[in-house]
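CORE FACILITY INTAKE
Project code: CF-77B
Contact: R.S. (postdoc)
Sample description: multi-component assembly, two entities in total
Requested service: structural model of the whole complex
Turnaround: standard
Below are the sequence entries exactly as provided by the requester. Do not edit them.
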Amino acid sequence: MEKVLIYDTTLRDGSQGENISFSSDEMLSIAKRLDQIGVHYIEGGWPGSNARDARFFELAAREGFVNARITAFGSTRKPFTEAADDRNLQALIDSRAPAVAIVGKSWTLHVEQIMENTREENLAMIRDSITLMKDHGREVIYDAEHFFDGYREDAAYALETVTAAARSGADAVILCDTNGGTLPFDIETVFDQVRRSLAAQDLPVRLGIHAHNDCGLAVANSIAAVRTGATIVQGTINGYGERCGNADLITIIPILNLKMGRASIPDDRLAQLKILSRFVSETANLVPLNSRPFVGRSAFAHKGGLHVNAIMKAPRAYEHIDPARVGNKRRVLMSDLGGKSNVVYKAKELGVELGCNGLDCQRIATEIKTLEDQGYQFDVADGSMKILLQKFTEQFKPLFELQSFRVTVEKNQSQPCTAQATIKIAVDGNDEITAAEGDGPVSALDNALRKALAKFYPGLEAMRLVDFKVRVIDGREGTAARVRVFIESRDHNDIWSTIGVSEDIIEASWHALADSFQYKLAKQQEQTEG
Amino acid sequence: MEKVLIYDTTLRDGSQGENISFSSDEMLSIAKRLDQIGVHYIEGGWPGSNARDARFFELAAREGFVNARITAFGSTRKPFTEAADDRNLQALIDSRAPAVAIVGKSWTLHVEQIMENTREENLAMIRDSITLMKDHGREVIYDAEHFFDGYREDAAYALETVTAAARSGADAVILCDTNGGTLPFDIETVFDQVRRSLAAQDLPVRLGIHAHNDCGLAVANSIAAVRTGATIVQGTINGYGERCGNADLITIIPILNLKMGRASIPDDRLAQLKILSRFVSETANLVPLNSRPFVGRSAFAHKGGLHVNAIMKAPRAYEHIDPARVGNKRRVLMSDLGGKSNVVYKAKELGVELGCNGLDCQRIATEIKTLEDQGYQFDVADGSMKILLQKFTEQFKPLFELQSFRVTVEKNQSQPCTAQATIKIAVDGNDEITAAEGDGPVSALDNALRKALAKFYPGLEAMRLVDFKVRVIDGREGTAARVRVFIESRDHNDIWSTIGVSEDIIEASWHALADSFQYKLAKQQEQTEG
């Protein structure tokens, strides 16, 4: 079976997504990663529409791309003009991109009502624009916009448009579900009819699919098209794109290679998918989706006790693929539905010697469950979990002890608040009292604790608190409700998370903070001793 | 064609998602909303596994559900025991839920390798458990776990398990793609074969589908099953669930009703889908996904220019359905027209006379946009929105003014924290200074403000703070991150919500509190005057 070519449009259609915009340098760094992983086409933007995209093509022309063809995007010429005079088409030529994507209309609604054009002139626009690009020696990908909507309304005309494109020498014709409203069954039917029709006219052009996710079906529609003859899939990394996004290549690629037996990028590059996904979300400054298929942080996370037990015997019992294939890994979460086997597995993972028989493990599991009923959630707080397991097994060595703290927040009329914390801790019998300010009470407490500990332990500068979350466990008690505070911390080579629960938000924050510093200090001490 | 029954498992399988946990009260409030919208089954949890789920069934038994059958979930009896002695099955009976879901094994890997059971005993477990439930008069939904994986490995045995379930009187058999690794084409093929096989044995049991999203195909797999004969769809609101989540009912329902012509919930309830999606994400304290199909904030967002122009001529040019059908609305991004008309619309809704010309409305829209960029979210805080509009139009009458407050939280060793607040306010030129304690700093501040205001305004006892939520807007700054505090308050006949944003959580809480009391006092005054 023929290879499926991967056509990435993260830089063009992906950047139509709300809150997404890349600089031309960022575009280049994404393009390089896409090339590395073995993508076949990289659509770099619309050089006729803005300076940033034009600049990207300048930068790209100087780079050597190994696998990918850089592709410039633009629409057919304007009605009743000459293609050679069209500034937008000229910009495509000037971009020096070896491939160009020409988008044209398939739907009579757009041709007649929106553009107020004629059907015949629309066909001429398609023909002329493609001919011009072929005359300039470009590979031409023709994007048939709104093809499926157009086909539903006037199948004959929609077919005429792609026939015109194929006859004019387009190397590929992409059927686009621009509004994202088509179901996979209809994608299959229409694809099959178009493929047959073009073959019957002796126009065996390469066919492709461009799907949007407005019905949550962009991946399904893409693979349905592949099954019915498409050999190009257009999509974006992480499915970024306008409205509900485009088809997510990060999901489609492993489905093609691992589940459908269709070659796309080389198999040995699949393990880079997770990093690529992460790189693009970081560049776009969007929070990575934990639940993203294949590459998300939760994609191979297991919660239930029974599940964990089963996975130890046979991973495929609860994993549809080996997570390492796509660069991901298994995670075991602690949860109120878990049991003894979770505790044993987790202790091993965290390097805590339980040294307990079945009965003790059961007792620990029960105590964890009680805490979780109170609002603790250890599946997201490995740091606190480790400390808790050490406490249960009497292996916990406190590296500092709280004597007292006092946090004060003051506000005068409409002036901003000020926050101060005073803290007294003891380390090996030596007391230290100090104070600090902060952006709010928790920040002040964090700063004061850090300052007090610095006296005894060097090296805390490398530790940073990178995430802070507050969840009111049951808001119905109003301001007296219980809150859960979650803190994520990191140093040069590690990342850990801790948790605290209390009716008092400062106390909950204190517990999470104290665990975080305790975890870091214990780690430092182990390294020194080891 | 037969109606498709919607089986919601947000409360059970959905809460297996990382970072998701509901209190039993929250479970009940979600269940009520699900019932309202016309869902047919609400799986409330696993009463045999934990106290919280058991409590939910107690609460649910006291409620009147109009449309939905409350369903309790549990597994088949343990191997080589009596069903009547099984504590887990007993818990299902004790739950008093009118319907029960019994999950059993279909895959020989699980039966033999994981459970170390025999094939025959597994069949007996299925038979006995279902028979017991039928003897107790329950409707029985049989969940065939790992059905598709099992069928791939040993089709004959997988079929035997569901045949056993159907013969024992199960009212419905659900084929589960537990690991989420199956493609829609295979779902269709297997579904068709199972349906034929059961029909040939004269066992015309109702069939259903339970899909997971590990390949981004849960929605596609669900509708593929419906197309091949499934008339129950199990899924969760927003697709919450373990790993990559379950099938998203918020997407599936409008596809069934609007695109496949299959009745599920009543058509006139579709417009509640957006609010339901939002309610569940707020209750789970998860950020709503802007790109969520149908209901996301971006689902019908159009960037300015050609698209907007086209939409003014014919909305279907770029919208696959009318957004109002699912309770959503079109958004035009970066368009001054959009912002301004929103403000006018909202002011009218809140009863604020803007009395401003176009230019002023534009200025207000811009200022609101600036605040929203800083983290305010006025769509969930009508109380604060009203006060803000009054401030902008110089109609705001402050009914108290803050002179100063000081909040102190103290902790000594492992004693619980204590929190005190001192506050000084002015009402009509009269100062009042007072102090109060509380469960945490915000509670202390709330109590102190209430005490100080009581001196000037009677009737505040009727006002209660019923919900309090904290969201860290960008956690990356650690403990110095900005937080948004949301407060919901009510009195005998009204409910209102207010919001505050600051890097200091106490200051953010203060703004939300102050708005809430201001809103209440203004309302009281209007009533007295009116």
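Facility notes:
- Chain B has two domains: 5-265, 401-529.
- The first helix of chain B runs from residue 24 to 37.
Invoice: internal transfer
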